[in-house]
Amino acid sequence: MTENELAREAVDIAYQIHKELGPGLIESVYEEIFAFELSERQIPFTRQEKVKIKYKERIFDKGFRTDLILGDKLIIELKSIEQLDKVHHKMLLTYMRLKDIKLGLLINFKVNLIKEGIHRKIDGYL
Q: I need a labelling partner for 78 at 20 to 30 A (CA). Which of 27, 47, 51, 55 fits?
């Protein structure tokens, strides 16, 4: 699947979960259910993958983890908070740059309409 096809599937999953469960759960529950839906659709993914940082020829891999990576082509960061801050958007872009992945979705489930909680980020060109 292409980045855009994976993103369409992810958005569909987000809509489905939000419609069924609403905005009141914690992030880890949404992540667990999101992973279940990805498995059901046979979409390859990893959870809580370390984000390695290279600095002066050394590799540091402590501290940062992505929520979900689909097909090594799309990073998904899930939130369940009242309001996203600029730092959440910047973190996703940083993860994308460090993992060399061009497309990312920041999804906040704590909204009345899920379309208001989905933010698409592109690093470079697709």
A: 55
The domain spanning residue 29 has which CATH number? 3.40.960
Do residues 105 and 121 lie in contact, with contact meaning Cβ atoms separated by under 8 Å? yes
Residue 48 CA to residue 67 CA, distance in Å, equals 5
Q: How far is CA 43 from CA 7, 46, 113, in A?
A: 11, 10, 25
Residue span of the structural domain in which 92 resides: 3-122
Total-model pTM: 0.91
Q: How many domains does the chain have?
A: 1
**In which residue are the tokens 């939130």 written?**
79
Instruction: Compute the distance between CA of residue 96 and CA of residue 74 in angstroms, rounded to an integer.
Output: 8
